[in-house]
Structures are given as C-alpha cells and as structure tokens.
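pasting input
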Amino acid sequence: MSRVIEFRDALREAMSEEMRRDPRVFLLGEEVAQYDGAYKVSKGMLAEFGPRRVIDMPISENGFAGLGIGAAMMGLRPIVEFMSWSFSLVAADQILNNAPKMLYMSGGQFGCPIVFRGNDGAGGQLGSTHSWCVESLYANVPGLKMAIPSNPYDAKGLLKTAIRDPDPVFFLESERMLALKGEVPEEEYLIPFGQAAIRREGGDCTIVSFGRPVHFAMDAAEVLAKEDGIECEVIDGRTIRPLDLETIVRSVRKTNRCVVVDQSWSFASVGSEVAAQVSEACFDDLDHHVHRVHADDVPAPYAMNLEQEMLPNPRKIRKAVLSACYRG
Amino acid sequence: MAIELTMPRLSDTMESGTIIKWNVKEGDKVASGDVVADVETDKATMEMQVYDGGTVSRIVVPEGKTVAVGTLIAVIEDGRGGASPKPADRLAVPPSSASSASSPPAPEPRIAPASPSMRPSAADDAESARLRVSPVARRIAEEHGIELGSLVGSGPAGRIVKQDVLAAVENRRAASVAPPTTVKTSQALSMPARTPAAPLPAMPASALASAPLAAGGRPGREMPLSGMRQTIARRLVESKTTIPHYQITMRITMDPVLSLRKDLNAQLEPQGVKLSVNDFIVRACATAMAEHPLMNASWGGDRILLHGAVNVGVAVSLPEERGGGLVVAVIRDADRKSLRWISEETRTLAEKARTKGLSVEDMADSTFTISNLGMFGVEHFTAVINPPNSAILACGAAIAQPVVRDGGLAVGHEMQATLSLDHRVIDGATGAAWLGSFKRLLEHPALLMV
C-alpha cells in the first residue's frame, strides 16, 4: 500500500526506520531536536528517540561535522544535518579532507559510515552565499558517495541506503522540494546507488539531470513534445557518485543526442563530467556535441526574476534540445 | 612546420579519390614538384604533385583506399617550424594544371558548376572541401553504404548530420520501392536538383542481388567495382532520378553527308585525313547551337546557366582489357573548329582514352554530349543525359532503305537522331527546332564548311 506524503516526511520516515532498526544510528544538527527541525524534517523524532539520539548542535558546522566523523570512525552511524549545504563550506576540512579519505589514510583501519544531509540549490531567494549547489564542488573528491533525490519515493529509498552505506554519503535535498508530494509505499524498500531512473521515454534526445532540475527537464520535455514534436528521454541520475553511466549510454545510443542539465555552474561541473563521459562512451553515436544546461556563471541573484532566470530553467533546456536536434 | 596533404579535387565532379600508389614512404625527402602518388579520380588516374619540399612524416591513407576530397592523406614536415597553414592553402594539384607556373595556378574558370548545388565548390573555399560529418551520421552512412560526399549537410557549416543520412537512406529505399512513374518525374520537377532535405539517391537497395546465381557447373563470380564503374552508376542514377527526361526523334537523310565524306576523304587521303560520319555530327551539333542557346545550357537550381563556350562531349567506350566502361571526351569550342580539326582531335582523344586514359582536362566542361551507336548497327536508342548538360543526342546508323524522293521511291540512307532533354531547361518546341537545324545542316553539309 502506498500513500501520498511530502518529501520531508519521506526523509523523516527513512531516518526513523533506520534508527529503529539500528541503535548505532543517530541524528545531530542545528535545530533538529527541540525545534522539531528547522524545516520540520525531524518533527517528532526527539519525542520518539530521546535526546541521546536526536541532538541539537551549536552553530558550529566544523565542530559537529568533525564530531560526527569521529563517531563514525568509532563504529556509530551518524546522520549530520546541515540546515543548508551552503553552511557546510565552513566544515570543508572535516567533510572533504577527513571523511572521504579516512579509509584510505588509515590503511583500512577506520571507515567513515556517515551521512551528511541538508538543503542544496538556489531558487528560494536566499542570496548569493546561501544558495549553493555543492554537487560539482564536492563530487570532485574521491572516497565519498553523493545522492540527490528528485521526489519523495527516491528521497526515502536513497536515504535508507545512504544510512546503511559503509562510506560517507553526501545527501543533497532541496528546500524547494520539501513540500513536494508523492506516492511512497508503506512497506520497506531501498533504492540502490548507481541506478538511474528513466522518467520519460523518447527517441529524439536524451536529457540527463539530477535532483530538482529533473522537474525542469520534464517541463521542457512536455513543451518539446507538444510544440516541437521532439520526444525526449529524461533520465534522473539519482546518484552522482556512483554515476549510472550505463543507463545514460544506452539512451544516447538510441537518441544520438544528449543534453545534460545541472543546477551547479558549468565550469568543472557534474554536467561537464557527464558530458565528457558520454562523449567518450558514445562518440560514434552522437549527432551533435553533448549540450550542457547549467546555472548561469554568476553568484545567485537575490531578485526573484533574476534568480529564476539564472537557474537551468525549462526555457534554456528546450533551447539546448532544439540545438542538439539541429532545430535551433 | 607540418604541411598537410589532402585529397585534391581534381575535377568539378570529383568527390573522392583512391590512392593507387604511393611513390614515397614515411621518412622520404620530397622536393617541390615531386610526384608523390597516383590518384584514381572518378574517371582518370592522375599523378599527384607536391608544392612543398620536406620530409614525409606520415602517410595517413594507405594504397588502395578511397577517401573523400579534402581528407588528410599525408603530412610533410618542411623543417621550418611555425604554425601549420590550413590545408586549403596548400592543396596539392595535378601536374597537368600546374605545368605553366611554379606557383599554385588560379583555379580555372568553370563554365558551369559541376552540379547545381548550394555547396560551395573547392575553388570558392577549399576549407569547405573538408567533409563535416557528425559521428553518428558517419556510422549510419557506413552501415548503409551511403557515400558521404554525395550528400549536402544541413548542419552548421554544412555538417552532414543524422537526418541528412536518414533522408538519403529513405530516398534510396523509396527509389527502390516505387517504380519510375511519371509521378516521380513531376516530383523531380518541383524541386531543385539538390536540396539538403533530398540528397542524391544512390543505387536502389532492394534491387540489389546479394550473390551471383550459379548454374550446374557454371559458378557466377563477383566483379569489384572500379572507380569509373562507381562513378557511372552514381551519376547516371543521379541523372535519371533527378532530371525530367523526355525524348524526341527525327529521321535525317544522310546521303549528302555520305557522298561529301567520300569525296573529301578521297581528296584528303594523301594528307592522312579520314573524316568519320561522327565528325560531321559533332560539327553539326556545335553549329546548331548558334541558333538555339538554350540547348547549350545547364540547370542551376534557381536559374539556368547559358554557356558561352560550345564544348561537345563524345562518348567513348573503353576496351574490356582496360576495365571497360565509358568516358566522355570533350571537343572544346567545337563551334569554332573545322571538320578536320574536330576529326583529328576526336581521334586523338579516343585513342588516348583507349590506351592510357584521358586526363581530367580532356573530360571536363562539356556543355552537350553525343552518343553514337551507329557503328554497331543500332538504328535507334535513347541516351541518359550527362549532367550538368541539359541534352544528349543519340545517333543510330545511317541505314539504306526505301525513301520517297521527288514523288518517287528511291534508296536512301537515313539516320535516326534522338535527343534526350531536361524539361526543366528545354521545352519540346526548342528541342524540335534544334533538331530541325541539325537535320538541315546534315542534309546540306556544305553549311558545315562555313
């Protein structure tokens, strides 16, 4: 049986189920306990699990990220909530220099089974410093995994997998999607990492995206089908590391065209990496170079109209698809 | 500085060339003017000369391989350093057109583009000679045996993209499914000769047999296609599928020509001159053009090109031992040449064609073509237009038969002459008027002397 719940409920269900299942799992972060979560993701969890497992933290990301990493190294399974991934930048040394490298540097003595999660991406008029899309910046580092769900079903299934994963997982949510509703089964399920989902089938152009921009891609695909007679195949990568190249390649071999939509900036980005890998794997299958649609190469503007224009919005995606199909 | 040698465009119709033989190998020193390779073009084997001296640092295309015009075939290192020029700046050219000057000669003015396409010619912009093809388009073309050089790309800078190749595949499929009906002709009428959306059809796929049939004790065999055979196949399919052909025939009394020829040959024998009936026909065709300029024209897609020069092509069949096939030797400015001159030139060219092969120059720039099967006893046939000509004349034999002359029966020699015409350029009345002039000239052959 499935019911319709919000993205934030799906996240909470994943954490609560895993905490019930495994006493090593605990949650720490700013406002997660007494305030029931800055965005109400952890609502009711303090009441159920008590202050030893749902722990409020001071405004000190570097400190509590390091605390979580130490706990993970010693065998616990912490979930560290960043109110926003933008705030994780002050914890960069912990999350990039310690967590992903610990297994390697300790010669296998210490793993780091930790989940960092929080809101990622622009679109909420939070200004330049609080609108970070960290995927391109962080995905560059070997040793970590990165999941980026686009809907409640994936949010729950991927987060449960993240919590059980033996490696550090960067789990990227979106404030703009926390209230997004979707069907989620009551029964337990997990979504393995590295398995992309085809959100829409089509034979003319493959659109690859991750997280919130998958919705932009779906909107663009709708218009392209209606206005331009172009059928897009929309692939939701679901995880960036590992990347399900196989599903993407299979689609591109069919459509011969590929547009990558990535909400981070284009330079040295996830979108560029996917474009490069597709070009390598599908060189003889491509009818045009891989097109990329990104956030514009500027700090996120505060003004709503400018911010919307900066995003990899459906208009830009449609334009890229038309060009890839030699129709632009 | 590395200098790139690319497959040169040795004729307007050349789209690809085969390296028959490399005269150099990697590491060899070459000097300006050296013949580095023999290249088979669509109709002739040419020597390829280089302008730049240096060391052959790389041979990219091996012997026996056919590549598109503009494809990199070798690299010469001139030992001077500096950035490489664009291959366009240093196109290797055949000795025949380079003989008069040590610097690259200006492209010869062409009286008509080889094909009325929107693709700029090599002379306009040699850089465009490089075929731009998307990877998947290249792969699909390979899978279907589509010659990329025959397509016009619709992508940026003329890039051939998937849809162009798919259209060609579709076109070929359609051509093989639909019988050649008049509907087909009217389609050809309504569209330009070449558009990006409708690339040239190649051989119909489903009409192809996959293996030769054998009969008890008599196995079939496969004959590989020579470059010439491929060219004949491609160009004639192009002609028959894109040009709206129609034919008109006239009977011509040949007794005056036969009698004049006999007389002239008897007189000129000591000088080694022997005029053929065909020489009279060539002269008559060229002379008739003066009154009917439309007959000496080419379809230009969005306009008609009326040529100033009258260059008459004569179809010459080649002997089996030279691989058979057919070439068109061109008598340039035939309207300004005497019968004797035409005769000598035709004989020289035919002899050359049958022994060592014609050069590209010998075959270039015809504005009208004659095919004569009279010597084989053929009475009547129709010929396929030789693009970019708009007309071709098919001549049968002058056959002795009863004719009505001065109200009485007599024995006369009559020849049937059949014009195949491109209806986009020439309407029936124009063709008929030209044929009337042609008839009058042959029936009053003294007119050919002035």
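fyi Chain B has a mean pLDDT of 80.
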